[in-house]
Amino acid sequence: MDEDTDDERLGRRERDILALERRGFSGPGAKERAIREELGLAPVRYYQLLNALLDDPRALAHDPVTVNRLRRIRERRRAER
Predict the structure, then answer these.
(1) What is the C-alpha separation between 81 and 76, in angstroms, rounded?
(2) Is 0.90 surpassed by the pTM of this model?
(3) At what angle do helices 43-54 and 12-22 cross, to 10 degrees?
């Protein structure tokens, strides 16, 4: 049996968001189209959820490479403002 409790695991939507972030997209609008079609979310809501997910320790435990890459991008953009 897996030792993780339900409180320590990401939900399906959170895992799907991280999986989408691991993919590469060709052409303008491809990512936004995938967000709408695959996740059923408006892009604005998707990015709100993603930003919150980057601060969630469960997300870091689930996919440290993706979360750390996105955190670096976020920090770089904040520093440019």
Answers:
(1) 9
(2) no
(3) 100
DSSP 28-73: TTHHHHHIIIII---HHHHHHHHHHHHT-HHHHHH-HHHHHHHHHH
CA distances from 36 to 11, 12, 19, 67 (A): 19, 16, 15, 22
Can you tell me the distance from the alpha carbon of 1 to that of 46, in angstroms, rounded to the nearest whole number?
32
**pLDDT per position as a tens digit, 6-57:** 567 999 999 999 999 999 888 889 999 999 999 999 999 999 999 999 999 9
Radius of gyration of the chain (CA): 14
DSSP letter (8 states) at residue 78: H
